[in-house]
Amino acid sequence: MSRRSRRPVRPARTVTAAAAALAAVGALTAAATAPASASAPAHAAARHVLLLSVDGLHQSDLAWYVARHPHSALAQLVTGGVEYTHARTTIPSDSFPGMIAQLTGGTPGTTGVYYDDTYSSALLPAGTTNCAGAKPGAEVDLTEDLDRNKDSLDAGQGLSGLPGSILKMTGNPTTLIDPSKLPVDPKTCKPLHPNQYLKVNTVFDVARKAGLRTAWSDKHAAYDILDGPSGNGIQDLFTPEINSTAVGYPAGDDWTKDNAATEQYDGYKVQAVLNEIDGYDHSRTRRVGTPAVFGMNFQSVSTAQKLPSSDGLTGGYQAPGVPGPLLAKNLAFVDKEVGAFLAEIRERHLRSSTTVVLSAKHGQSPTDPKALTRIDDGPLIDGLNAAWKKAHPGAGDLVAHSVDDDAMLLWLSDRSQAAADFAKAYLLARSGTGNGIDGKAKPFTASGLKTVYAGAAAARYFHVRPGDSRVPDLFGITQYGVVYTGGKGKIAEHGGAHADDLDVPLVVSGAATPHGVRVTGPVQTTQIAPTILRLLGLNPKGLDAVRSEHTRSLPVR
User: Fold this and answer.
1) Can you say whether residue 132 is alpha, beta or left, with left for phi > 0 and alpha for psi between -120 and 50 degrees?
2) Separation between Cα atoms, residue 408 and residue 452, nearest integer Å
3) Among 243, 286, 435, 536, which lies 20 to 30 A Cα-Cα from 190?
4) Alpha helices of 324-416 — where are they, by DSSP H?
5) Is the dihedral of CA 99, 336, 246, 271 positive or negative?
6) What is the pLDDT of residues 64-81, one digit of tens each?
7) If you write DSSP's letter for every residue of 226-241 in order, what string do you get?
8) Which element (helix H / strand E) includes 18?
9) Taking the CB of residue 20, how many other CB atoms lie within 10 A of it?
10) Pair 316, 301: CB distance under 8 Å
11) Residue 124: CB partners within 8 Å, gap ≥ 6?
12) How does pLDDT run across 108-137, given as a tens digit for each residue?
């Protein structure tokens, strides 16, 4: 692979100054109203779209790095296209709803996916075989726990020579999911796979119907969900397990516990994408042509933000919004790998036909280290269950399932409004002691919560009907800086609704884009999906969520 010198950063035009340029190449509104069939491409401005999602990356991180490295690959992306400086991801700001939003155009209320580990009151528990009369209510786990072997980088495929042989991993990870761990559909009495759980189709589904090639690389076999309801949206899905045992690192550590390990892990997916740019499958064993839609997620920025220290460097931020040494090092790592992609695109003479989209599934909070308040949520949930049983003799636990990172999501065994109000009142009345960035005791009030939506209010917040089988019965937005964790090993998290969780970068650069344009108005990462289709000459209305939510394409061309 050749690497060439990079262009220096140039002053960006604001959206006001650049409106004429944008309009000349496609109009600012970019509403998804084209009459072209979704199954047959119209005249395409780009033949390939490479989507790069950098977990944890904020718009402020990108701006900080580009300002200090004007000749970098990230600066080249910014100056070579359109930068949206006020983009926001989904609420909850978790990896699964965040990634699904970018590839469906929909928010959790439409897609049905609120987090990577949730609950459905309509499905039956994993392992159910006698469905007649079985009581509904089941965890829906989309984590490493679904793998046949979650301790192995290949998720249980059985490859020898790991981790060096990981590129031989299958491109069909559905085969690596243990069906005994899946919730059961009461209608069929069969396990429900992740792609069947998704309520809407994906960009990959639409591209495949148009006869285009698709590929993706991500961190769990459960990202089979991106295959969409068709089950065949992605032709080459490479999913090395990030939470497996990291070979060559301290015993028991996975690839997220050491930032150098996370970089090594990301490197496997980078090589997969480079192989795809070259026209091969991810393993470089079959020549299949460069995909029309492909890409990967990076994990290493996220671990650099979460870990207190790694590789002798302090993690997180050294001041509000100012990356510390570990994060700065990791931004440079991502820049180097993005540079490798751009160099390979040039080398393969694909520059005039490839658009690169850079964004993030989620941000990370807090970026002000002094604001950190770590709270053990275990005693809060235990106390709520105990209070409920005391008030309702003979009752079981009120909380059927909970997910608490820097937000609180509760699914209740009693779905009445009275039960939701009980949970809300209990949590808002709880005070206690957590710990701060220095590990010292730090008091908290209201269970660390700022705003709580309970029962019908939670349903309205996510734009679904009360009683929807998937919506949490309680959604709590934390006070800024609160992270729910039982130890002192995390200094940041995501999942919540603070600006640090939501404010992610969004850059569309390369073929079919004007250069050096900065759009300062608000946009959403859901707009990436219809934009990808429009860039490829396909109708964005081929996406179910775009039709349901009226999601507009980004003003690109």
Assistant:
1) beta
2) 9
3) 243
4) 325-347, 377-391
5) positive
6) 999 999 999 999 999 999
7) GG-TTS-S-SEEE---
8) helix 15-24
9) 10
10) no
11) 131, 134, 135, 136, 137, 138, 183, 184, 185, 186
12) 999 999 999 999 999 999 999 999 989 999
Average pLDDT of the chain is 93
Closest CA to 114 of 51, 55, 199: 199
Gap between the Cα atoms of 473 and 364, Å rounded: 24
Q: Beta strand pairing status for 449-454 and 474-478?
A: antiparallel
Separation of alpha carbons 475 and 473, rounded Å: 7
- In 75-153, at which residue ranges do the beta strands (DSSP E only) sit? 81-88, 117-120, 138-141
pTM for the whole structure: 0.93
Residue count of the chain, please give it.
557
Strands 313-314 and 309-310: antiparallel
Dihedral sign for Cα atoms in the order 424, 426, 429, 431: negative
Helices (H) and strands (E) in the chain, counts: 16, 26
SS3 478: strand
The encoded tokens of residue 425 equal 């009142």
Run of H or E residues at 224: none
User: Can you list the alpha helix ranges (DSSP code H) found in 150-227?
Assistant: 194-197, 203-209
Task: Give per-residue pLDDT as tens, 471-497.
Answer: 999 999 999 999 999 989 999 999 999
